Amino acid sequence: MTRAQTVRDLLVREVEATGFVAHGLHVRIGADTAEHLWAPDVRRDIHSAAKGVCVLAAGIAADEGLVSFDAPVSHYLPDVPLGAGVDQVTLRHLLTMSSGIDLAWSETMMTDWPDLAREFLGRPSRGRVFQYSNASTYTAMRVLASVVGDIVDYLDPRLFAPLGIHDAEWERCPNGWIVAGGGLRLSTAELARIGHLIRDRGAWDGQQLVSAEVVDGMHAHWVVAGENPGYDRYALAGWGGPGSGWRLHGAYGQLLIFVGDAVVTITADDHLGADAIAASAVRMLED
Questions:
Q1: CB of 58 within 8 A of CB of 218?
Q2: The 184-186 sheet, strands edge to edge
Q3: Averaged over 78-88, what is the pLDDT?
Q4: Residue 105 in this model has a pLDDT that exceeds 90
Q5: Which residue, 258, 256, 251, 255, is CA-closest to 282?
């Protein structure tokens, strides 16, 4: 039995013992994989794990010389009025949630204003402080779209097709832009391919789809995010922890958990149980 199979079996037992409402599980350690499904592997919203795909999109564009993570966003959206201090905000600040612009999440965020990106950038910045908001990732992808056009069309030949993800489904706002920070629908197997790419620092089947530097930035140069374990540091879409790991974490238990040469993919419908199952996965990978 491979280590991937052992960890898979341990996690299956943990899920069933705790009642965690999982849909699918995929474990990759080195070259070995193992998986388990509790439900048909259909596409479901990966929620905030989509923020990692947004980072990959920005990284691919940066690799092509189309955008810079560290240029002011006003360079790309010159006609958008800016709030106080927002002239210093960069694409990196938007993707690391460190723009200092406040705009709390709501279920009607995409329809509360005629243009969410203009509303967001028109508010003042408090400086380089952490403020988690889907509006930040949405605005980042509006910046990117100003250079590359439609994000899904841009990613199809550069990311999705090489990974075998066809006809990608990404929810859109009333103005036709992807909602970015969520709304991307992937199966467990498809999300696992994203995890495999990230684990291998942007390489896939002998091809470098995105630079290793960009992927490394998903779990480096941490921004202080708070004091709660697992939510105390944030990078380019990645949360530090639990334990020695780091993760992409979407609502209701959409998880890519990285420890060394291992990545565990979990899809679920269990918001409250996600932190505990992530911690269990890391402990098993550390043993």
A1: no
A2: 44-45, 184-186, 169-170
A3: 97
A4: no
A5: 258
- Encoded amino acid at 137, one letter: T
pTM of the model: 0.98
Sign of dihedral through CA atoms 41, 45, 46, 51? positive
Dmax of the chain from CA atoms?
A: 60
Dump the DSSP string for 77-133.
-TTS---TTGGG-BHHHHHTT-S-B-----TTTTTSSS-HHHHHHTSPB-SS-----
pLDDT tens digits, one per residue of 190-207:
999 999 999 999 999 999
With b meaning 16 or more CB within 10 Å and e meaning fewer, what string describes 95-133? Answer: bbbbbbbebeeeeebbeeeeebbbbbbebebeeeebbbb
239 DSSP β-pair partners: 234, 247
- The interaxial angle of helices 274-286 and 3-18, nearest 10 deg, is 150
How far the first Cα of the chain sits from its last, in Å, is: 16
Q: Judging by DSSP bridges, how do beta strands 44-45 and 184-186 pair with one another?
A: antiparallel
C-alpha distances in angstroms, 25 versus 7, 39, 125, 205? 11, 10, 40, 22
Question: Is 213 in contact with 201 (CB distance < 8 Å)?
Answer: no
Q: What residues contact residue 172 under an 8 Å CB cut-off, 6+ apart?
A: 178, 179, 183
Q: Rounded to an integer, what distance in angstroms lies between the CA atom of residue 104 and that of residue 126?
A: 15
Q: How far apart are CA 72 and CA 68, in angstroms?
A: 9
